[in-house]
Amino acid sequence: MGKAGRVLSNTDPALRRCWHPVARSAEVTGQPSRAMLLGDPWVLFRAEGVVRAFPDRCPHRRAPLSLGTCEQGGIRCAYHGWRFGPDGGCLEVPALGGEVRLPARASLRPAAGVVERAGMVFLAPEPPLAPLGEVPEAEDPAFEQGDLPAIRARACAGLLADNFLDLAHFPFVHGGTFGADEAAAVPRYDVVRDGHGFTVTYEHAFANREDPGVAAGLRPLTQHRRLTYRLDAPFHLRLRIDFVEAGGANVIGFFLQPETDTSCRIYTSLWRDDLGGDPARMAEAVDFEMAVLEEDLRVQQAYDELVLPLDPTLELHTRADRTTLELRRVLADLVGAAEREAGAAPPDAVAGTPTPVTGLPPDGGQFGRVGSGTFVGTGPRPSTVSR
Length: 387
Fold this sequence. Notes:
The structure is a single chain. A hairpin with a 5-residue loop joins strand 17 and strand 18. The protein is of the alpha+beta class. The chain is built from 5 helices and 23 strands.
């Protein structure tokens, strides 16, 4: 996993080699807007239906281009009127009159990638090392979408992802929403790693108070649901909940935009195929998820250190923490790959280099603490782990 003491902040340079959400598609229009990402400002605008993204600084006097206007598929700076084309090339410097030769450095460097998916705009500042995650339900006409308002919070994106994947906090953090009916013991589940991502699936009993069939006497209150979590590094998360007896599915997309060292913008979307097209029921579902998120943020915004430890020896891990430990492994591998390509450290010293250290206890023990580079106890260390 991560090298000794390695932590991940919202502005870690390695994150520049990743896809990140920067806006909902509806927020990007024909007029420029600003988005903060990894401590840097970006200007976004839509030209001929395509989203363009450039650093939000004019090369002349570094004025924010987001104060300008969009013209002929490009953007004009509000300060001295320099105009840039769709590819970032400078097309006009009004102060030079009709002079044809423009300064060679008078151009904007576009983002390495901009993609619209699932109603979101994703941006990669530099060529990404991992693919952008998918939300298959967003393309399925059987599902209707509901969006929570985007929230800006004092939080660490890594810790927010950790919280979304954590399976042990429900009865303690979410007592006001769904946690009161949740058992404290975490059920058996699998963690399946693939590339810079992983999938977790488990099934458990719960009180399905939303099911109309319960009130009608058609089904019991205690039913079963299958939960499938998906992480695509760094912070593209999805949870699909399939209701075994009642049928239907509830999909939650959770997309994190690390803005600055202390700020994140959080996007949450729902996809449901069990609401019958009823806007009132979708509005109720959105309000419920907002209440759940507010419960989580009460804890997340209280953290003193807004970093995610990648070194497993900095924390104590139990068998119930397999999902969140795998998150640290995936992100450590991603950071290691970025640092190796950048030449920041030799391969055996960076986060993500495979070692015997896992920080994960074997099935026979409750706790795992690793400090010497050896696995605690006996047991398998496969990429697919069953609890």
